[in-house]
Structures are given as C-alpha cells and as structure tokens.
Amino acid sequence: MNRPALRKYVNPQYLSDLPEGPCYDAGHLVTVNAGWRTRKPVLDSEACTGCYICYMNCPEGVIFKSDGKVDIDYDFCKGCGICGNGCPKDAIVMIREGEA
Ligand code: SF4
Ligand code: SF4
C-alpha cells in the first residue's frame, strides 16, 4: 500500500510554520480514526478513471495514488464524503459504517 508516512506533529509557533495551501500535506495526521465515523467511502475501481480529483479534494489527505487510480486509507478517513461529491464518474459512494 502506497500510504503516506506518519509525521511527528509539532504545533506551529510562527505563521511561516503553517502550510501555504488550504491544508497540510498528506500524512500529517498523527492518530487513527477513533471509531466515530458513521459513513465511509467505497471506491468502484472499475468506474474510476484516475483523474485524481478526489486525491486533491480530500481534506485529510488520506486518498493515495495506487496503480494509476486511487485508494483510501480508512485508518484516517473521517467520512466527510467530499471525495464522492466531487467524483465526475460517481466512482465513490458513501455507505453506513459496518455495511457490506
Ligand atoms: S475523482 Fe473519481 S474518477 Fe477521479 S480518481 Fe477519484 S474516484 Fe477515480
Ligand atoms: S470521506 Fe472525506 S476524509 Fe474520507 S477519503 Fe473521502 S474526502 Fe477523505
């Protein structure tokens, strides 16, 4: 799995310590999902064209590139659904946590 490596989080002290973009780079999270996620994204890799829109949209940076397409790191996904909303191929659907 091509998942981002965890990094040690250091509280920013100066403005220059903050990321330039709207979010930190992928892999900045330091704790796994604590079990409060109620819905989770499921990827249809047949429908996925590898456009990487979801990869760029995920606010947690937990979608990673995999063999020309994408995959999701469920350890850190918070279940917001932004990835599915922005997918032009409807290749990501949200299901209830625990559903098959
Ligand atoms: S936005 Fe949809 S089609 Fe594009 S990479 Fe993500 S899942 Fe695949
Ligand atoms: S549901 Fe939210 S956190 Fe999870 S992969 Fe999609 S955009 Fe990222």
Automatic annotation (TrEMBL):
InterPro entries: 4Fe4S_Fe-S-bd, 4Fe4S_Fe_S_CS, PorD_KorD. SUPFAM superfamilies: 4Fe-4S ferredoxins. The keyword Calcium does not apply. One of its GO terms (molecular function) is metal ion binding. Keywords: 4Fe-4S, Iron, Iron-sulfur, Metal-binding, Pyruvate, Repeat. Residues 39-67, 68-97 form the 4Fe-4S ferredoxin-type domain. Its cofactor is [4Fe-4S] cluster. Transmembrane segments: none annotated. The keyword Metal-binding applies. NCBIfam families: PorD_KorD (TIGR02179). This is Pyruvate ferredoxin oxidoreductase. The lineage of its organism: Bacteria, Bacillati, Bacillota, Bacilli, Bacillales.
